[in-house]
Amino acid sequence: MRNDLTNIEVDLERLARALTYPPTPALAGRVRLQITSSGATYPAFPGAMGLAATALAALVVALAALVAIAAPARDAVADLFDRIDIFSAEEVSPELPTDIRGESVTLDEAQERLARRILLPTGPDDSSLRPSTVVYHDFGVGAPQAVTLSFETIGGVPFAILETDGGIGKGLGGGASAQPVPSVGEGEAYWLEGLRIVQLYDARGNLIGESQRRTDGNTLVWVQDGLALRLEGDISRDEAIDIARSVR
Fold first, then answer.
1. Which helix (H) or strand (E) holds 188?
2. What is the pLDDT of residues 140-188, one digit of tens each?
3. What domains does the chain contain, in order, with CATH numbers?
C-alpha cells in the first residue's frame, strides 16, 4: 500500500498533467520598464531583491494554477484524485475483448493475494453474500491488484464487482453517459450507461493495457476503504446503488 508521501507525489503529477496553464506573463520585462520609467537605477536583483523576485514569480505560478483549476479541467482533476477517470472516447474499438479475463480462484486465495479483506455486499439478513465465482487479475510486477467477484443472489439478477487498489478508467463512446451519484462510498461515484472502454491504471496513473475491454452493461463506480470499485450488470441504477451501499 502506498504511503502518504507517495500518494501526494502521484496526485501532484496527475494534477500537473490535468491542468492547462495560461501563458506566463513577461514579469521581468514589466518590472524593468517600471524601474526605467521612474528614473531610478538598480542592479539586477541582487540579494534580497533576488529573493523578492523569486517569491513574486512563485506567486504568479500559484495564481495561474488556481485559475486553471477553476477552468473546465477541474472536473477531471476531481476524478483523478478519487481514482476514477471518466473521459470521452472518439470510438470504442470492436477489437477490444468483452470478456473478463483472469485466473479463477477461491475467495480466500484472492484475499491472500490482495493482502487485505475483500469487500462484499450484504443481503437482507445483513450477512455477507458469497460470490459464485472469483477471478484474480495478474497484470505483472508493480501493476495494481484486482479481483472480480460474480454474484447471482439478489433478485435472481447476476452482477459483478471489480475491486482494485489501482485506478479505474471509463472511456465513453458516442451516446454513453455518466451521472454523479450521491451518498455512495467515500468520494465521487458515477452511474454509467452505453458503450464504453473499461481500463485500469497503476499507482502512477499509467494505463494497464492488458486491462482494457469494452462493455455496454450498466455500471456504478465508486471508491471505498482505499479501493476503487466497479459494479456491472443488467441492473437498474437504484438496484446498483442499494447493492453498493450494502458493501462492507
1. none
2. 988 999 999 999 866 678 999 999 999 999 999 999 999 999 999 998 8
3. 4-78 (no CATH), 82-246 (3.40.1000)
pLDDT in tens, 12-59: 455 444 444 444 444 443 333 343 344 443 333 344 434 444 443 443
Tallying the residues shown for the chain, one arrives at: 248
Residue 86 CB coordination number (10 Å):
20
Long-range pairs for 225-228: beta carbons < 8 A, 24 or more residues apart: 225/119, 225/186, 226/1, 226/165, 227/119, 227/163, 227/164, 227/165, 228/83, 228/84, 228/163, 228/164, 228/165, 228/166, 228/167, 228/168
Contact in structure between 114 and 137 (CB atoms under 8 Å): no
